Description:
The structure holds two protein chains of two kinds.
Chain A: E1 4-7, E2 10-13, E3 19-25, E4 32-38, E5 44-51, E6 57-58, E7 67-73, E8 76-81, E9 90-97, E10 105-107, E11 111-115
Parallel strand pairs in A: 2-11
Antiparallel strand pairs in A: 1-3, 3-8, 4-5, 4-9, 5-6, 7-8, 9-10, 9-11
Chain B: E1 4-7, E2 10-14, E3 20-25, E4 33-38, E5 45-50, E6 56-59, E7 62-67, E8 72-77, E9 86-92, E10 102-103, E11 107-112
Parallel strand pairs in B: 2-11
Antiparallel strand pairs in B: 1-3, 3-8, 4-5, 4-9, 6-7, 7-8, 9-10, 9-11
Amino acid sequence: GAVVSQHPSRVICKSGTSVKIECRSLDFQATTMFWYRQFPKKSLMLMATSNEGSKATYEQGVEKDKFLINHASLTLSTLTVTSAHPEDSSFYICSARDLGQWNGYTFGSGTRLTVV
Amino acid sequence: QQQVKQSPQSLIVQKGGIPIINCAYENTAFDYFPWYQQFPGKGPALLIAIRPDVSEKKEGRFTISFNKSAKQFSLHIMDSQPGDSATYFCAASSDNYGQNFVFGPGTRLSVLP
């Protein structure tokens, strides 16, 4: 089945630094990937849609200059949290769809970001 | 229109019980209804999914019941086990490839031994 690999699984960084999270589709190509944020005991909130070779589409209220998304290839999307602050601490999850499967939304294992 | 409502918020059952989680949607353009299971610190994993052309789908101990006219669908877990303890999310999307992919707020299930 479709596998989406997300790295790192957890990261701790200092305020003001930037952190990059990678999302890879391992056995399929994904022209579109999705980035979600999840607060404790809450549902997933779509942040942005990452499009290969073009600009990402951000949901309302998500700062595109703070959450930089790059989708440079058909198997890799990256989310960079720039100038991180403690309020950016959260669980970030990516997903991608394998068009070869009708129910093909596969999620990565998530990245726990803690900004200190 | 974009919301997916889910209930209950939390659920506790004894081992062997049949927890039922319900979801409702408004947008009639939705045509794909998956259920995801999420363990703490992990990403959601697809459990089972249904399209509106069938009223029920069963995979192992998991069954989705779908009522198109009522715009409701539910997840039943037969012979529940402590290992089923997790948060369950229903979701809905249209075939516009990720657009309108909406998650319910989640149900925290605890199955007691």
